[in-house]
Specification:
mainly alpha; Rossmann fold; two-stranded parallel ribbon; 2 strands; globular
């Protein structure tokens, strides 16, 4: 269900690049790969607050750098 939700979110105009982090019990390689293909990251339960903070910080830094860097450079 989470995979379909993420795919659907990214079909709305203006939401293609919105970062998504799902919290899930799925921790197998296939789920991680499918999540990456759908364009989202996830954290496995139980939640480790430091892991969530690091993922959120990484996403914010990546988005900030992407908005400052022209495509193709």
């Amino acid at each position: 269900m989470a995979f379909e939700l993420c795919t659907r979110i990214k079909t709305f105009p203006g939401y293609q690049n919105v970062p998504v982090i799902f919290v899930t019990v799925l921790d197998d390689f296939e789920s991680r790969l499918r999540g990456a293909e759908c364009g989202y990251d996830f954290i496995c339960k139980p939640i480790v607050p430091l892991e969530l903070a690091l993922k959120a910080t990484t996403i914010l830094i990546t988005c900030t750098l992407a908005s400052r860097t022209p495509l193709g450079t």
